[in-house]
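Protein modeling request. Please complete all fields; requests missing the sequence field cannot be processed.
Requester role: graduate student
Desired output: 3D structure, token encoding
Chains: 1
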Amino acid sequence: MDCIPLLGLSNFQMARTGTEEHVHEGCVEISLCLRGNLAFESDGIEYPFLPGSVFVSQPHEPHRMRHNPKGLMLQRILFLIPKRGECALDLPRGESAWLIQQMRHFSVRLFPATERVKIAFGRLFELYDTEKRGTVSCRLKMKTAVLELLLALVEAPHAPASSKGRPHAKVKAIVERLRSMPANDYPLEDLAREAALSVVAFTDAFKRATGLPPHAFLLDQRIKAARIDLVDPLRTVASVALQYRFSSPQHFATAFKRVTGQTPRAFRARRRNA
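Delivered output (274 residues):
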């Protein structure tokens, strides 16, 4: 469809380095996270992109993915802003102008997806995969599905928060501690006890809050912290590995490459040559 030049599904089977900062000329980019844990960066601000989150970038807003972790899955579309005098989705002029205005002025860039948004994204991809291209039926169904998705997205930032999606207060505090002090030891049973939850319930609540189970989140935070320490020319790879509780430099290198797509030594060399 003319107003949707891109309909994409990303499913990363291996870690990749982050993208370069970029814009989408004339387009609003809208992404829905289905799985994984990453962050968008824009204008010096980091936006955590967790499962069930929607991130919006306007044509003039430079942004980048900080890194593309293994297991990340997201759906995204580009909405092409019609040229002056043209209408979106062949809508009447007044309705098209209203829709374009809404798409250009989201109140927030990052917000939780409603069930309506999730279903509409899924329906659009289903039609794209199953309908015979070029038929009147396909065009009408796709146009209807796109309009439903855009209307759902317009309403989503103003929808009341779901109590199920609100992070458990004690779990939220634990998440922040792991994020700020990743070098410490955190036995899972102790964390669950602190949150007054069973291990299973704690793990489920933790995953809802971060997009990752506790061990994977802690590993991710340790790798992030290690990246900073590796820039210090006085630090050895072995000392950084020991600080963040890896059993050996080899174990550290394997985990580091799995998350970042490069070895600690390659990362250090690249930063020094930057």
